[in-house]
UniProtKB/TrEMBL annotation:
Keywords: Acyltransferase, Transferase. Its EC number is 2.3.1.179. Coiled coil: none annotated. This is Beta-ketoacyl-ACP synthase. The lineage of its organism: Bacteria, Pseudomonadati, Pseudomonadota, Alphaproteobacteria, Acetobacterales. Residues 4-249 form the Beta-ketoacyl synthase-like N-terminal domain. One of its GO terms (molecular function) is 3-oxoacyl-[acyl-carrier-protein] synthase activity. SUPFAM superfamilies: Thiolase-like (SSF53901). It comes from Roseomonas nitratireducens.
C-alpha cells in the first residue's frame, strides 16, 4: 500500500506568551524574549500563566463556557484557532479528532482534607481511613463530569467535529502517540483530514499537589530549564495546542497551502533513569526517522528541566552535531500533554515563515538556515518521542 504524505495546514496555539501563530512568531523570533512567569500565586512553585482570552470568539455560547473547566475551555479554544487557520470549517463533519489530555480538575477542598488527615493518621489506621473517604467524600460521581474525553466531546459540540474521536491519557507519551497515530491513520489512507492536540492548565492547585508530591516541580525563583540544579523540576506552562493534519492530496484538492510536511513521528516508553536507557531509546527513534543531524537541522526540544530526564536528553542532543537547538520550555514552560503538539506547531510555523528562532535558553547553541526541524519530547518520568518536519513541497 502506498503511504501518503501528511502535511500540517492549521495551527491553534495558546501559551503564556499569547495566542495564535502570528503572535507566537512575532514574539519568539525576536532575540531576548523573556518568559511570562507568576512566582507568587502557587509559591514556592512558579508557573507560566494563561493569557486573557476572549472565549466568545471560539466558544460563543455562555452555557458551553460555564459547563467546561478551564483546561477544557483552553483546549476547545485552541482547536477552533487551528480549524480557522486551516480554513476548514466546512470540513468538520469529516474531520477525525484525536485528543491528549489529563484528568479533570479535582475537588481541592476534599483533597486538602484527605491529605491533612493522612498527615496525622497512624500508618496502621490509614487503610480504614481511606476506605471511609472512598465511601463518603471521594464518591465516583464527583468525577463523572471531569473525564478527559470531555475535551473531545466539547470540541465536537462547539466546533461540529464529527469524524471518529479518540482520547489518550498518559502525560507526555499520550501527546506523542496522539500525533503519531493521527499522522499514521492519514498516511495509511484512513481519512483525509484530522484535528489533533491537547491542553494543560498550569494554574491548578490539584496539579501542584500531584506533581509537587512526585518531586517533578521546580521550587523557588524561576530558572531556565538547563539551569535548575539538584533534582531540577518543571515549571508548569499553560498550553493549548492543536494541529490540522491532512494528506497532501486532500490539501491540494481544496487549495489549502501546507505549512510543513510531517515526515515522521516515533515514540517509546522507556522509564527515565540514570544510565542512558532513555537516551539510547531516543537514538533508536532517531534512526527510524532517518537520523537527521548537523547543519540545516533545527531542534525544538521539549526538555522539562527534571534532572534525570534532562541529562538523558542532553546526551541525545549531543549526538546531533551542528544542529541548532532551542529549548522551548524556558519560555513556554512544560504543558505535559500539550507540549509535544505545541512544539510541532512551532516547528511548522518556523518552516512556513522560512526562518528559525533565536536562542531561548542559555544552553541553546547553533544557528544558520534550517531546512528540517526535529521535535523532541522526553517525559519527566517516562517516554521519548521525536517528530521530523520538512518544508512543504
Amino acid at each position: 500500500m502506498t503511504r501518503q504524505d501528511v502535511v500540517i495546514t492549521g495551527i491553534g496555539l495558546v501559551s503564556s506568551l499569547g495566542e495564535g501563530p502570528d503572535a507566537h512568531w512575532d514574539i519568539l523570533s525576536k532575540p531576548g524574549t523573556a518568559p511570562v512567569v507568576d512566582e507568587a500565586a502557587f509559591a514556592p512553585y512558579p508557573v507560566h500563566p494563561l493569557p486573557a482570552l476572549n472565549l466568545d470568539a471560539q466558544i460563543p455560547k455562555k452555557g458551553d463556557q460555564r459547563q467546561m473547566e478551564p483546561w477544557q475551555r483552553l483546549g476547545t479554544y485552541a482547536a477552533g484557532l487551528a480549524i480557522d487557520q486551516a480554513s476548514a470549517r466546512g470540513l468538520v463533519a469529516d474531520m477525525h479528532l484525536i485528543v491528549s489530555a489529563g484528568g479533570g480538575e479535582r475537588d481541592i477542598a476534599v483533597d486538602e482534607a484527605v491529605a491533612a488527615q493522612f498527615c496525622t493518621t497512624p500508618p496502621a489506621e490509614a487503610g480504614p481511613a481511606l476506605n471511609e473517604k472512598l465511601a463518603t467524600d471521594l464518591r465516583p460521581t464527583l468525577f463523572l463530569a471531569q473525564l478527559s474525553n470531555l475535551l473531545a466531546g466539547n470540541i465536537s459540540i462547539v466546533h461540529g467535529v464529527t469524524g471518529s474521536s479518540r482520547t489518550f491519557m498518559g502525560e507526555e507519551a499520550a501527546a506523542a502517540d496522539a500525533v503519531r497515530i493521527a499522522a499514521a491513520r492519514l498516511a495509511e489512507g484512513r481519512g483525509g483530514i484530522a484535528l489533533v492536540g491537547g491542553a494543560y492548565a498550569s494554574q491548578r492547585w490539584d496539579l501542584v499537589l500531584l506533581y509537587g508530591a512526585g518531586g517533578a516541580l521546580w521550587r523557588g525563583p524561576f530558572a531556565p530549564v538547563s539551569a535548575r540544579p539538584g533534582t531540577g523540576g518543571f515549571v508548569g506552562g499553560a498550553l493549548g495546542a492543536f494541529l490540522v493534519l491532512e494528506t497532501a492530496d486532500h490539501a491540494r484538492a481544496r487549495g489549502a497551502v501546507p505549512l510543513a510536511r510531517l515526515a515522521g513521528v516515533a515514540s517509546d516508553a522507556t522509564h527515565v533513569r540514570a544510565g542512558g536507557a532513555s537516551a539510547a531509546a531516543a537514538k533508536a527513534l532517531h534512526a527510524r526517522l532517518g537520523a537527521p543531524s548537523g547543519a540545516g537541522l533545527g531542534v525544538l526540544s521539549g526538555m522539562t528541566g527534571v534532572a534525570e530526564a534532562r541529562a538523558e536528553e542532553d546526551a541525545f542532543l549531543a549526538t546531533l552535531g551542528g544542529a541548532a537547538i532551542r529549548r522551548t520550555g524556558t519560555l513556554l514552560g512544560h504543558g505535559v500533554e500539550a507540549s509535544f503538539p505545541a512544539n510541532v506547531a512551532l516547528g511548522a510555523l518556523a518552516l512556513s515563515r522560512g526562518g528559525f528562532y533565536p536562542a531561548m535558553d542559555p544552553a541553546d547553541a547553533g544557528d544558520g538556515p534550517v531546512e528540517r526541524i526535529l521535535v523532541t519530547g522526553f517525559g519527566q518520568w517516562r517516554g521519548e518521542a521525536l517528530a521530523l518536519l520538512e518544508r512543504a513541497a
